[in-house]
Specification:
With 352 residues, the chain is of the alpha/beta class. Helices cover 32% and strands 24% of the residues. It contains nine helices and 14 strands. The two termini are 31 Å apart.
Length: 352
């Protein structure tokens, strides 16, 4: 991980709960804040929520006990009592909101996909590093107890040297032009909404960026990407396969294959409660299968919130588990796949 800062590091948050502001009080934000309130109350508290509709913000604030509800995003970003902003708006709004928050000295947790373009992600990362502020993509999968244990098993050589990785995530979503998932104006499509999960899984295990990417996919009749399968070639000859779809309910499974066995993560791998370690005695027959059960706490968002709180207390600008270089690697693959389908997104710079 490479982190640089030309400014004095920020003052760590100690001796009090971290104060959160939420921008975009939708479904995911509701789950995240519920875990904040029910699982992480000793470390963090919801201070403010902002929506373009002040009534919607007030309903969310009343439900979750926020002190303040704002009818504009900038009002929340200007609130001096907010330590960290959770950005949960549609993808195309992340870039400008993140930059505006960083300009005001706020730390950030940004929902996936981090932005709609690689250039937008690079600009946010550069701004965060220049200001010495903490920023992390909200890839909750990496912090799930089962996934933490999987990384430990891989590092311990439980299945030998890793050779390949697979992951898929798909839903059958009936076409509806008004649905965010099918709306190109909101960054809709399978890749940014679903593909980010299996691609982040591949990047987590293989590391770095692919030396070559093979891709097949299809478009909906309105030009939105509907499904994709990608083959990630790593520099050392290893590879990974990731699939996503809005047309088919893919299993949502993942696996890591090594020279002495494999680790299977049953559906759904992006918030799993268990894994299976299959070991081979002679390279052919299965010697043993071990089940590891490690359920998440609460809804499952609590673990990424724990990481934000830990980093802010220790004065870190990036999470060692979800560093910004990993986010940039995945954004680069997402953008390359989109471009191969003829899709070029832009960021929504009119959001603030």
């Amino acid at each position: 991980m490479t982190t640089t800062s030309t400014r004095v590091p920020y003052e760590p948050v100690r001796d009090r709960p971290v104060r959160w502001g939420v921008v975009g009080p939708g479904r995911i934000a509701n789950g995240v804040v519920r875990d904040l309130r029910e699982q992480c109350a000793a470390d963090g508290v919801l201070h403010a929520v902002a929506s373009r509709s002040v009534d919607r913000a007030r309903v969310f604030a009343d439900e979750h006990g926020a002190a303040v509800a704002y009818g504009s995003y900038l009002e929340l970003l200007d609130d001096s009592d907010v330590d960290v902003v959770y950005v949960a708006t549609p993808h195309r709004q992340h870039h400008q909101l993140a930059l505006a928050a960083l300009e005001r000295g706020k730390h950030l947790l940004v929902e996936k996909a981090f932005t709609c373009t690689l250039a937008g992600a690079e600009e946010v990362v550069a701004a965060a590093r220049e200001r010495g502020l903490f920023v992390m993509e909200a890839m909750w999968t990496r912090f799930q107890p089962t996934v933490v244990r999987l990384r430990e098993l891989v590092a311990e050589g439980a299945v030998g040297d890793v050779r390949s990785v697979r992951a898929d995530l798909g839903l059958r979503v009936p076409f509806d032009a008004a649905d965010r998932l099918w709306d190109p104006a909101q960054g809709g499509g399978a890749l940014l909404d679903l593909g980010v999960y299996p691609l982040s899984w591949l990047q987590m295990v293989l590391g770095g960026r692919p030396t070559r990417l093979d891709h097949v996919g299809s478009l909906a009749h309105n030009g939105v990407d509907a499904e994709s399968t990608l083959l990630w070639h790593a520099e050392d000859g290893r590879h990974g396969v990731a699939s996503c779809s809005l047309l088919s309910p893919l299993p949502g499974a993942a696996a890591v294959f090594g020279g002495e066995g494999w680790i299977e993560v049953p559906p759904r791998f992006h918030h799993p409660d268990r894994l299976l370690v299959h070991r081979r005695r002679d390279g052919r027959s299965v010697e043993s299968t071990e089940e590891v059960v490690a359920p998440a706490r609460g809804t499952g968002y609590s673990h990424e919130l724990d990481e934000v709180h830990r980093c802010l207390r220790e004065g870190l600008t990036e999470s060692p588990t979800m560093p910004l270089d990993d986010t940039l690697a995945v954004m680069g693959v997402l953008e390359e796949a989109l471009h191969r389908l003829g899709i070029t997104f832009t960021e929504d710079d009119a959001v603030v």
